[in-house]
Every structure is written in C-alpha cells, then in structure tokens.
Amino acid sequence: MLQVLSVDAVQGSEAEATVLSLVKTKPDLSSFFLDKRRACVALSRAKFASIIIGNTALFQGSRDKAGLWHKVAAMYK
Fold this sequence. Notes:
With 77 residues, the protein is α+β, with helices and mostly antiparallel strands.
C-alpha cells in the first residue's frame, strides 16, 4: 500500500521503504530542515530502503554546515 504522509504523521510508525522529498530551491531553509527531531523521524522510518530526493548543493551550502543535513548530503553524494 502506498501512503503519502507528512513527517509529523509518521512519527512512531515504520514502513518497508520511504521516499523523502526535500525539494527546495531557495537558500533560506525553513525550520523543518533545521529541526533535528523532525529530521530524525524523516530519516529513520524505513525498514529496508530509503530514497532521498533533494538539492544537495542547497543543503551543503546551508547555514547548517556542520549539521545533520550537510552530513546526509555528503554521505549520499
């Protein structure tokens, strides 16, 4: 079954696979991207496979340079 949910809606649940869309083109990252608790939920819901779609250049150049999204972008690049 395919479900499309927000990060807040999946807290406490799991899925066989997830697709996380981080598509953003403006350099001003919203508080969602900088909230480590929400990022942890978004990155930890998949049992077997996780696909992350996003603008890696934006995340690596963000004000979160030493933070979670920079590390995630560097790891998957």
